[in-house]
Amino acid sequence: MKISARNIVISALLTWAVGLFMAVSAHNAGAQSVINVSGTTWVGTDSEGRYYEYSFQPDGAMYYKSPTGFWKNGTWKQDGNSIYMETNNKYSEYQGTITGTHMEGRAWNVKPEQWTWVADLRNPPSPPSTTGSIPNVSGTTWVGTDSDGDYYEYTFRPDGALYYKSPSGFWTNGTWKQDGNSIYMETNKKYSEYQGTITGTHMEGRAWNVVNKHWTWVADLQNAPPSSSISGVPSVSGTTWSGADSLDNHYDYEFRPDGSLRYSYETGSFTDGTWRQDGDSIYMSMNNKYSERLGRITGTHMEGNAWNVVNKHWTWGADLRIPASASVPAYTGNVVSLDGTTWIVAETNGDNDIFNFLPGGTLSYSYQNGSYTNGTWKQDGDSVYIEMNHKYVEYHGKISGSHIDGTASNVKGHHWTWTADMRSSATAPTP
């Protein structure tokens, strides 16, 4: 049987087309399987052994926790399975690849230094339910936008109250009801109302208000529900936390085991507060609910929103204070302990200091403007961390014999380096 050249060409073209289609389909299937990182948190380490947490906010902002503290000065972009991050106005930049619930890549900074990093999704999505069960939204927070492009956060309180963050501020005057996969919300005594449908970790619907305006909205579960995502969060009972609010007031919060809250700030110390913890969620009230605070705990950091009876709203943050009883080991390997020593410090910002590492973790320091005792210090082997004036300035350094080299930064975003040499030497460790 003779086969014409025309048929051979057509057969070859068909074979090529089918192969191309399958390759494109496979590529698209792979691209579709890539997680959208918006609203998720990933945790991991870098090649220097430092631990990080990256929270990808839906608006493109990145919140992150590093060895130096909790920061909100980052941004992120995702293009398929490629992820880009930058922190502190591109002081550091990260480029990586996402594979399932894992990402890894390289990083660099302005010095220039280069390193590698890895991170994994903290709360991987559960496999699709075969029973079609609908999650209970009680105790969860969902984030999203509306058809006007405005960003919202909805926190569904177990008592039926709805706390929400909108472009105009943080509010607690809403309520919610769930009936299976149907969700209803109203805000400000039904000034606005929302009706939607829940599908897995996504909800969407329509909304209207009393002036007959109509729009649509969507929201996604911010993190796993508290019952499963915060099992490892320790109780704050018996601990003290310190931090500043957006009104420039500095607070100390003492969470007493009986549920009472002792708090101190510029005007005095008071014991008329109460507190409640629900997993990683913390609530505080002061002066018979004259003011209230609601926040989320992440490791040794907590932050959130606050409001009072005259409808004033602001934000706050706090960090776990190191117990005064925390002891520092005399030596770690052959590295001298800083405990009880004095060091002469030179900084590239022009300051010359004297650091006194007092027992118990207190730092006394002197420089051109005077002497102060509002600093703390921690040593982990050959690494030292120092903060002054409630973390207005922070220092990180590496100890090598009787010498320290390190970096420093302040809340204004300034960065510099520093060195120190020991004045009063400790007894050398025995090999």
Tell me what the structure shows.
This protein is mostly beta strands. It has helices at 5-32, 226-229; strands at residues 41-45, 51-56, 61-66, 69-79, 82-87, 92-99, 102-109, 114-121, 141-145, 151-156, 161-166, 169-179, 182-187, 192-199, 202-209, 214-221, 240-244, 250-255, 260-265, 268-278, 281-286, 291-298, 301-308, 313-320, 331-332, 335-336, 342-347, 352-357, 362-367, 370-380, 383-388, 393-400, 403-410, 415-422. 22% of the residues are buried. The chain folds into five domains: 1-33; 41-121, Beta Barrel (Lipocalin), CATH 2.40.128; 141-227, Lipocalin, CATH 2.40.128; 230-320, Lipocalin (Beta Barrel), CATH 2.40.128.20; 331-422, Beta Barrel (Lipocalin). The strands form five sheets. Strands 1-2-3-4-5-6-7-8 form an eight-stranded antiparallel β-barrel. It has an eight-stranded antiparallel barrel with strand order 9-10-11-12-13-14-15-16. A hairpin with a 5-residue loop joins strand 17 (240-244) and strand 18. The chain has two helices and 34 strands.
